[in-house]
Amino acid sequence: MKKIFALVAIMVLVMASFGNVDAQGKKVKQATETVEACMPIIGISAAESSPASAPATYVNAVKRAGGVPVIIPMTSDKAQLEAVLEIVDGVIMTGGEDIDPLKGYNEEPLRALGEIVPERDKFDLMLIRMAVAKGLPVLGICRGEQLMNVAFGGSLYQDIPSQVKTSYIKHRQEAPRNYGTHSIEITEGSLMHKMLGVNKIAVNSYHHQAVKDVAPGFKVTAVSPDGIVEAIEKVDSDCVWGVQFHPEGFVSMGDDSFLGIFKHLVNKAAEKK
């Protein structure tokens, strides 16, 4: 992380070449030391079709939780990702397209499968495996939770309506992103329970895929009333977990009901600094 602050300091010093360089240098040093000590850097995986951006809701949620958000651009270069993971203190895997079932968990694609982006699958799988191996706190959101499950040996329902006949809830809502349209039941004593402090809560919902076979070493910690997995967490860790809904939709709009999810990520990132 010191590398990025050093670069910032150099840029400021160059721009201050017509002023008091020593004074500018001292100010930059003081500012960067304060930020480095107090504000963990949270990397947000590039989302959807843009290789170098993510929705502002993720950025705003991290900021509200006390972290410094930075976007991790899509890349297939492992060395670049290693360099990025030396800088960030935690990672959020964002929502987006369907995951390729053939390459991801050895299933033929169903007709109801949505858009897939092979380049993003490759990037996301590499990023999440490297981040977890490095011991960084990782939060997966929607596709990010599904990806977490696939990355470590689990599988997905490619399409809930056609594969889960007992599912009766509308998991693709037509309502504002900060409005909960169905409830979830949270396991007592789980990481989710500790973060939110409740056993039941209404969440937003924008998906047609979901966790099917849970990855070895992970457990389910929240479900919807129709049995769809809404949260998973790594069994031997308190800093690797995923949620099927979009908590950033609430937090970015000033609703603190789900702020604990991002606070936990930022606090764990601070411990890893």
How would you describe this structure to a colleague?
This protein is α/β, with parallel strands linked by helices and 273 residues long. The protein is built from eleven helices and eleven strands. The strands form two sheets. The protein has a nine-stranded mixed beta sheet, with helices on both faces. A two-stranded antiparallel sheet has the order 5-8. Helix 3 (56-64) links the parallel strand 1 (41-45) and strand 2 (68-72). Helix 1 packs antiparallel against helix 2 (21-38). The chain is globular, with a radius of gyration of 20 Å. Mean pLDDT is 89; it is low at 1-25.
Task: Annotate the secondary structure layout.
Blueprint (H helix, E strand, L loop, with lengths): L1 H14 L5 H18 L2 E5 L10 H9 L3 E5 L5 H10 L2 E4 L7 H5 L12 H16 L4 E4 L1 H9 L4 E2 L2 H4 L18 E5 L4 H6 L3 E4 L6 E2 L6 E6 L5 E6 L5 E4 L3 H5 L7 H14 L1
Helix pairs in contact: 1-2, 4-6, 6-7
CATH-derived architecture of the largest domain: 3-Layer(aba) Sandwich
For the largest beta sheet, what order do the strands appear in spatially? 2-1-3-4-11-10-9-6-7
- Portion of residues in beta strands equals 15-25%
Globally, the shape reads globular
Distance between the termini: 9 Å
Q: What's the count of strands?
A: 11
